[in-house]
Amino acid sequence: MNIEIICTGDEVLTGKITNTNFSYMAQKLEDVGLSVRWGTTVGDDRETLLAAFRQAGERADAVIVNGGLGPTVDDLSQEIAAQAAGVELVLHEEWLAKMQDFFSKRSRTMPPNNVKQAMLPATAEMLDNPIGTACGFAVDIGKARFFFTPGVPRELRRMLEEQVVPRILARSGAPTAIHLKRFHSYGLGESHVDQLLTGLEALDPTGGVKLGFRAHYPQLETKLTVRGTDMDDVHRKLAPVTAEVRKRLGNFIIAEDDQTLEGVILKALSAQDGTLSVVETFTAGQIAARIAHMPGAETVFRHGTVTRQLDHLFGVTVPPHLDQDTTEAVVRAAREQTGATHALAVLIELDDGADRIDFGGTIWIGIATAGRSEFRRSRILGGREWVRLGAVELGMDCLRRFLQGLPVVERIDFEKT
Amino acid sequence: MNIEIICTGDEVLTGKITNTNFSYMAQKLEDVGLSVRWGTTVGDDRETLLAAFRQAGERADAVIVNGGLGPTVDDLSQEIAAQAAGVELVLHEEWLAKMQDFFSKRSRTMPPNNVKQAMLPATAEMLDNPIGTACGFAVDIGKARFFFTPGVPRELRRMLEEQVVPRILARSGAPTAIHLKRFHSYGLGESHVDQLLTGLEALDPTGGVKLGFRAHYPQLETKLTVRGTDMDDVHRKLAPVTAEVRKRLGNFIIAEDDQTLEGVILKALSAQDGTLSVVETFTAGQIAARIAHMPGAETVFRHGTVTRQLDHLFGVTVPPHLDQDTTEAVVRAAREQTGATHALAVLIELDDGADRIDFGGTIWIGIATAGRSEFRRSRILGGREWVRLGAVELGMDCLRRFLQGLPVVERIDFEKT
């Protein structure tokens, strides 16, 4: 199936905003086993919009158009869609009533220019937008089915999932049941995970399981797209594959599906009525910033300290170079003085000199509870920002491992030893 | 001048990576007064690449192609460029020698597949890449001049600025001297600033000044593109316009050109041998994370505290609802107990209930030195993340104003009063 995406709007074309809608749509299609073949970006201009619609209508089977459904004069998608389809624009009474209801529920009068949003090509099928006034629609242009979607990301996301993807899947003749299973890991590079998972797809002899990755350093997302005749069939296929991924990636899996590393940490602490204090140096509050604002953190996150002078407040004498004893003394003192059940210290000695690609830092990590303390030393290269990102993730992952009863010290691909 | 951009690569087409190169290129062209008319995204596929090159060659004057210059088999740009131009691929001896030198300087032997990177269309003009092995080149396809650039962002950025933009400008017949002046402001919305700057372009009667904006909440970038016959002419045109922007936006300008808000704060503190301590609640370390990691911060940033329980460590009794006296007591105690010359406290009372679009927070900001303290109260709506972003920026901006001797309390567009 030949799928194209057309993104419209001067703000996208001039680079004023980065086009995250494109990558979002392409990924959502990949997740259900469909691929985009061609992407086009054009501005709010009648001539180029018409050329883009006609061109895609000649060569594609399905086209998703994003943007241009707003109430202002530079929103042209409905008008040009009607022109390209060779039909009139007509008032869609159902959508007009929905919009009037939308405004009256918010105690506002609908401005007259919003009526434009209810003008659709005569042959269009309406695609519902439950959270906005931009009306989606589907229409045939050339040999392709076009799906028009709003530019506002949260409206696009909902319409894509509920209205557009199911229609494209139905046209593609793909099996009705599809599920995406995701694993988030930390510490193994993409090619390493790829190698560890060799032969995984073959565990389902029907070929219903597809493996993919999405790297956002320092985390890696492993994605399993599973297709079946129905959801029972999907879960039957998924069970042995999921078990195998958990076995092969083991301790390196930090979260699954919509979970996050910080969410897993917060949940584990809550479960044991724990509280947390964090001491940071060069990571400068980034660990606290990941955890302390979350709903529920107000009773768990006890204290965060950011300092570039380690002997301050916790009364520990710090030698010119850090060592294990000092790190453990700092984390124990922090825990005692802030009254938390758990403390995490991530202390960093940066290399000297200017930032450069092989600039590095030595990371000293300590974790303490009343009865126990753990220590890990690591070295990360790659420039100041890379060291900082790496240290945040490594420190949080050590805490996750500690809370889950896993070894805190286990070699990762991103460290230099 | 009709300019198109073609982005190539499966990683971009499948949405595995977000295409920030496109917006970067489009912005760089806008900054020198040029506009992109059409954007195309295609994968590593011979047939679609050829179709994309031919199509752009028929309708554009200049085309920038990004990606596909690497050493692996799926890097196809040179091969398809030669095919579209109707010429042979030939070995470019000069680039081969540069690559061999590149590897030998790093004490490595060049792998044989890198030779592919020195194969260019016979009619190509080489575009230098001083920091990588991907060789840029320019070649005519159809009626357009094509510029082939590497996908690695830092290589692209350098080649675009040094090689591609000057060549496109020369072809466009635009004046030789162009300068981009940027102002970063906080507290005024884009339409408000647009209105405040009404008539600004007319200050230069030759029409050589173009005004533009780029919003990245909570900051706004105001851009002046100035064209002239030479740099003296540009600076002559720029001086009165720059003075007028400073006058009209006044206290709301937080930084200019490559400066940042955190950089301005750090510099102002350094200049008075100051040190800083920060107390945060729901902003959860984001203020510390902006300042404390910067080069030079190791002697200025004294201490950061993140807590959701305010009475801890600083010994201030906090009533059920915050007030001015408590905020000032906390910031004074923090300054004294951490031994800094300056302290900033950004304390937040969040609304109750689930996150929603009108979810808000009340922000209590205190600043203290040994002899003086300042206070500001604000209210921001827009959901948890919006409140957090807004509070970080407002707190930092109050400190900037304090350090620069400006009023700390001045109404901003983003607060509800």
Blueprint of the fold:
Two copies of one chain form a homodimer.
Chain A: E1 3-8, H1 10-13, H2 20-31, E2 36-42, H3 46-59, E3 62-66, H4 77-85, E4 89-91, H5 93-105, E5 119-121, E6 125-127, E7 136-141, E8 144-149, H6 153-172, E9 177-186, H7 190-196, E10 209-216, E11 219-228, H8 231-249, E12 253-256, H9 261-271, E13 276-280, H10 286-291, E14 301-306, H11 324-338, E15 342-350, E16 360-368, E17 373-381, H12 384-403
Parallel strand pairs in A: 1-2, 1-3, 3-8, 13-14, 13-15
Antiparallel strand pairs in A: 4-5, 6-7, 7-8, 9-11, 9-12, 10-11, 15-16, 16-17
Helix pairs in contact in A: 2-6, 3-4, 9-12
Please give a structural write-up.
Helices cover 36% and strands 26% of the residues of chain A. With 417 residues, chain A is an alpha/beta fold. The first copy, chain A, folds into three domains: 3-172, Molybdenum Cofactor Biosythetic Enzyme, Chain A, CATH 3.40.980; 177-256, Alpha-Beta Plaits (2-Layer Sandwich), CATH 3.30.70.2860; 261-403, CinA-like (Maf protein), CATH 3.90.950.20. Chain A has a six-stranded mixed β-sheet, sandwiched between helices. In chain A, strands 14-13-15-16-17 form a five-stranded mixed β-sheet, sandwiched between helices. In chain A, strands 10-11-9-12 form a four-stranded antiparallel β-sheet. In chain A, helix 3 crosses helix 4 (77-85) and helix 9 (261-271) runs parallel beside helix 12 (384-403). The mean pLDDT of chain A is 93. The interface between A and B is large, with 64 and 63 residues.
